[in-house]
Amino acid sequence: MRIIDLRGKLPVHATYKYKTRKLSDIRSFAIHHSLTFSGSAEAFARYHVTTNAWPGIGYTYVVGRDGTVYQCWDHTVVSYHVGNSNKHALGICLVGDFRTQLPTQEQYAAALELVRWLRQQLPNATNVLGHSEYPDYAWKACPVISMTDFRKNIDKKQEDDKMTAAEAKAFAELQQTVRSQKDQLEAQSNALKAATERIEAPKWFVEEFGGNVEKLIHEPTFSKEGWRTLAVALRAQSQLQFG
């Protein structure tokens, strides 16, 4: 889902201002269609301000025909779109006149995804209603699409996302395998680091070959295995010299 933030960028009334609310006040998502064959958030905002004398656009979100979602207000803004239910409803408008058009596949899918996402952001908003399902709006042909199907499609996706018992068990086993492999890799990595870590001459080396190690080698740091290998070489050299 692609959301373009238009908050603060759309036409607003010179003096009228919308009220605000707490996020916990939002109990439903109101689905609208624009009743226009085409349009944009900017065009709807101009109409609502200049013709309706509203403080600004009436929708919090507008969903374009291409599936792009435009955010017009913060969720706390009480915009005008469902009369006396405005305080408790968040408005989502799909561009189009669904009396004679259908939403595009991209648009419909984006609207579903938007509502699913908003449900996570606003847990008190448990209802998804069409404009005409709000009190005093039964006469309104909006949004015309089947809200029963729309709600089923929202819930169907959520059900599809849930794991079956067998899937959950397999996932848990996979997690355990991954954790075990991660622990093994970390242990191997730590062991390799310890084996290759360059250190100064260990005590046993200094006691055997003297403290002035720099006379023996140019760079007096080796891994533990390196010091052992050097000690073997020095012992062999000593035997050759005095043997």
Structural class: alpha/beta
Overall 3D geometry? Answer: elongated
Secondary-structure element sequence?
EEEHEEEEHEHHEHEH
- The mean pLDDT is 88
> Quaternary arrangement of the chains shown?
single chain
Query: Gyration radius, to the nearest Å?
Result: 35 Å
Number of helices: 6
Description:
With 243 residues, the chain is an alpha/beta fold. Helix content is 41%, strand content 14%. It is built from 6 helices and 10 strands. It has helices at 41-50, 105-121, 147-161, 165-196, 203-209, 224-242, and strands at residues 3-5, 19-20, 28-33, 61-63, 69-71, 77-78, 89-94, 127-130, 199-200, 221-222. The strands form 3 sheets. A 6-stranded mixed β-sheet has the order 1-5-4-7-3-8, covered by helices on one side. Strands 2-6 form a two-stranded antiparallel ribbon. Strands 9-10 form a two-stranded antiparallel ribbon. β4 and β5 form a beta hairpin. The protein is elongated. The protein starts with a strand and ends with a helix. The relative contact order is 0.11.
Q: Could you give the topology of this structure?
A:
Blueprint: E1 3-5, E2 19-20, E3 28-33, H1 41-50, E4 61-63, E5 69-71, E6 77-78, E7 89-94, H2 105-121, E8 127-130, H3 147-161, H4 165-196, E9 199-200, H5 203-209, E10 221-222, H6 224-242
Parallel strand pairs: 1-5, 3-7, 3-8, 4-7
Antiparallel strand pairs: 2-6, 4-5, 9-10
